[in-house]
Design goal:
CATH superfamily: Carbon-nitrogen hydrolase
Shape: globular
Distance between the termini: 62 Å
Number of helices: 8
CATH topology: Nitrilase/N-carbamoyl-D-aminoacid amidohydrolase
Order of helices and strands: EHEHEEEHEEHEEHEEEEEEHHH
Structural class: alpha/beta
Largest sheet: 6 strands, mixed
């Protein structure tokens, strides 16, 4: 088997597996395997699973027993998907609740190449702490920076869920050479919010990621989960809508709000090239004016410190 060369191809094909998750890890893993097979069968070369796909979204509550759901890298899940990537000759983005050592856990994604090689790990950088999204209890903030992986089909940057709201993360990933940014995600409505602001929240979520595609001249792909998890009155409804958008922000493929689906989308390098030529944001960046972007907040007192 010959490893593909990204620079020699004019296009690459992305697959996203959108699925609901039940309480049984083995059943969730098998559903994900079948989703990967379906995507590969339709020509996908780079296939992403959704955030924390092995389990239901346990961060809805604080429970120390949930740390037992974690696993090491390499571990049983990475071994299964390493063999699958090699068999199907595809690159895989496999999110993992990573146990690095006792007491040190991450929300991670392993990138596996088409020869079954482990290309590396991305660890989620931005960790939320909101009602039913108590991730700060479980996850240490990522310590590997923003990374880009040459899968052989395309250069892929990985960011995870809450990372998707931060333009700095998308920019730094694009500046490292990403042609595609993949966002494995688990986002949905709190039961009390769905009726009042639900559509507004979902539109904001899609809009900000499409804006990252435009501002950085990259393809963006987001794999979200579906289904209702939790007790009545305290449930989360995951809204699906996994999608792929072009460097111009056009959504080329979108999944439904409720069904398990496999999305496959072709990405053209000529589109990426022309978008960056016509809207040369990288060329016109004023890097000499951005030094203070690393400060938490800029107010009158901090402004006086410049003088």
């Amino acid at each position: 088997m010959k490893e593909p060369t990204s620079s020699s191809a004019g296009r690459f094909t992305v697959g996203l597996v959108q699925m609901s998750c039940g309480p049984n890890i083995e059943e969730n893993r098998e559903k994900a395997v079948q989703g990967v097979r379906a995507a590969a069968g339709r020509g996908a070369q780079i296939i992403s699973l959704q955030e924390l796909f092995l389990t239901q979204y346990f961060c809805r509550s604080i429970d120390p027993d949930c740390f037992c759901l974690s696993e090491t890298i390499p571990g049983p899940t990475t071994e299964i998907f390493t063999s699958l990537a090699r068999e199907l000759n595809v690159a895989l983005v496999v999110p993992i609740f990573e146990k690095r050592t006792a007491g040190l856990y991450y929300n991670s994604a392993v990138v596996i190449g088409p020869l079954g090689q482990r290309l590396g790990i991305y660890r989620k950088s931005h960790i939320p702490d909101d009602p039913q999204f108590f991730e700060k209890y479980y996850f240490t903030p990522g310590d590997v920076g923003y990374r880009v992986f040459d899968t052989g089909f395309a250069k892929v940057g990985i960011l995870i869920c809450w990372d998707q709201w931060y333009p700095e993360a998308a920019r730094l990933t694009a500046l490292k050479g990403a042609e595609l940014i993949v966002y494995p995600t688990a986002i949905g409505w709190l039961e009390r919010d769905r009726g009042d602001v639900g559509s507004q929240q979902r539109e904001a979520w899609e809009t900000v990621q499409r804006a990252h595609a435009i501002a950085n001249g990259v393809y963006v792909a987001c794999a979200n989960r579906v289904g209702v998890e939790g007790r009545i009155g305290e449930s989360l409804t995951f809204w699906g809508c996994s999608f792929v958008c072009s460097p111009s922000g056009e959504v080329t493929d979108r999944a439904s709000t409720e069904a398990d689906e496999v999305l496959v989308s072709v990405c053209e390098r000529s589109v990426l090239e022309m978008q960056r030529r016509e809207w040369p944001f990288f060329r016109d960046r004023r890097i000499d004016t951005y030094a203070r972007i690393t400060e938490r907040y800029l107010d009158e007192e901090s402004d006086r410190s410049d003088t």
